[in-house]
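Possible regression after last week's pipeline update?

I re-ran a chain I had predicted before the update to compare outputs. Posting the input and the new output here so someone can diff against the archived version. Not blocking, just want to make sure nothing changed silently.
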Amino acid sequence: MNVDYINPFVAASFSVLEMVLSKTPVKGNLTVQPDVFTSHKCNVVFGVTGQVSGSVIYGMSGPTALQIATIMLDEPVKLFDKLAASAIAELGNMICGNALQHLSEAGYQCDITPPTIVHGQAQICTLSCPALVMPIETGYGKVYLTVGLKGRK
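New output (post-update):
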């Protein structure tokens, strides 16, 4: 697990979350798991391709997703509908776009797949490589950043 691949996603997560939510996020304890796995109620899943490849997942509880969507849409969101899903997907796009810019500046050319929203009771697992999981307290609940990336030869 190369921190050169992971740090851009960590930095982008903190930067974008603070900008969007107007609160300073707080880093939780890092854990490493053998693969990219999540079982949160709401997840935004991205594939990364290019010189660095793997998966990135932003997972959160249902109430956290609704609160973040409420802030992003500037109107109360009570149900996780298409509009709420679009807001959460856009948050993920903003973070991943920022992270890819950092990777590019470090000399790694990469792309991301369009976001996939998984909402409801599900388990997501990709067996691509070990993953780092970082809980980020946003003031509206935790967002769990799961990054499993490896370099290509």
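Follow-up from reviewer: compared with the archived run. The chain has three helices and ten strands. Marking as no regression found.
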